[in-house]
Design brief:
The protein is mainly α. It is built from five helices and no strands.
Length: about 190
């Protein structure tokens, strides 16, 4: 009797590695924009010019965005942990709740945009405001798409306790998105 050839070895965690690369690329791009923003702001303040008009940026709505994102970090990791126990119901619930938090963040960002009333051509500070927060919004939309695709795949039964790499990749990208907003929140909204 002849033995069957061994199956090709599995490449473990390729989805997680891909998620790390996407998260790192997004992070580096936003950090570059943030560094440029901080350098231009320092130049403007050193020259004695106002950067952001006093009272034009409130701390309340951006703070609510931050707290909503912090809650969403808990729910996205709840989804990973629940799938690790083969608890599909709670994993689906956690992913849906994460998506809801993400949609709430987009709604809050829209409120911030309408509240500040900046014009893109209103000056360098206002342009940088839209570039930085817009980069975050793009990352947030990408993270929401990842959560939606992961939820659909999970509902289709593609994940188990042993096969949840896409959940981890989604959680990693979500975490980086939240961290990026934390940096933007501090640099743009707190220190102005």
């Amino acid at each position: 009797m002849t033995a069957l050839p061994a199956p090709p070895p599995l490449r473990p965690r390729t989805t997680v590695i891909a998620g790390l690369f996407v998260a790192a690329a997004s992070f580096v791009g936003v950090i570059g924009l943030l560094a440029l923003y901080l350098a231009r702001r320092a130049d403007a303040l050193a020259a004695g010019r106002d950067w952001i008009p006093e009272g034009s940026l409130e701390l309340g709505p951006p703070g609510m965005v931050l707290w909503t994102l912090i809650m969403s970090v808990l729910t996205v990791h709840w989804a990973v942990q629940a799938m690790g126990r083969d608890d599909r119901v709670h994993s689906h619930l956690a992913l849906a709740l994460t998506g809801l938090f993400g949609a709430a963040v987009l709604n809050q960002m829209w409120f911030i945009y309408t509240d500040v009333g900046y014009a893109i051509d209103g000056g360098e500070a206002q342009l940088f405001f839209y570039v930085l927060t817009g980069a975050f919004v793009v990352m947030q939309i990408a993270a929401l798409v990842a959560v939606a695709v992961t939820l659909l795949r999970s509902l289709a039964g593609n994940f188990s306790a042993r096969e949840r790499d896409a959940l981890w990749a989604t959680a990693i990208f979500w975490d980086v998105t939240v961290f990026v907003y934390g940096l933007i929140w501090y640099a743009v909204f707190v220190t102005k």
